[in-house]
Write a structure and sequence with these properties.
With 81 residues, the chain is of the alpha+beta class. The longest helix has 7 residues. It has a three-stranded antiparallel beta sheet. It has one domain. Helix content is 15%, strand content 19%. Bound molecules: zinc ion (ZN). Zinc ion (ZN) binds next to loops.
Length: 81
């Protein structure tokens, strides 16, 4: 079976410590900062990201005013359908 690619690609944002994806194992609990293709930045553990965890703003699990609040409507109203 081929692993399914994540729905949205995210890039690792190199932190102040200068560490990147090459410094951690796939099961690491290090909380890295990621940036999704819509430029949302969010912290997520490496292990969770590897398991397919996506951007919490795109998934409307976290509120981003003007993007997924109830007034902005787009992804939130889809999620409520
Ligand atoms: Zn996003």
């Amino acid at each position: 079976m081929t692993p399914r690619p994540p729905r949205r690609r995210a890039t690792w944002v190199i932190g102040e410590d200068g560490r990147g994806p090459g410094d951690y194992s796939a099961g690491s609990r290090y909380e890295a900062t990621w940036r999704c293709e819509l430029d949302h930045e969010y912290p997520m553990r490496v292990e969770r990201r590897v398991q397919g965890g996506g951007c919490p703003y795109c998934a409307s699990r976290l509120l981003l005013i003007g993007f997924n609040d109830l007034q902005a409507g787009t992804s939130t109203s889809r999620a409520l359908e």
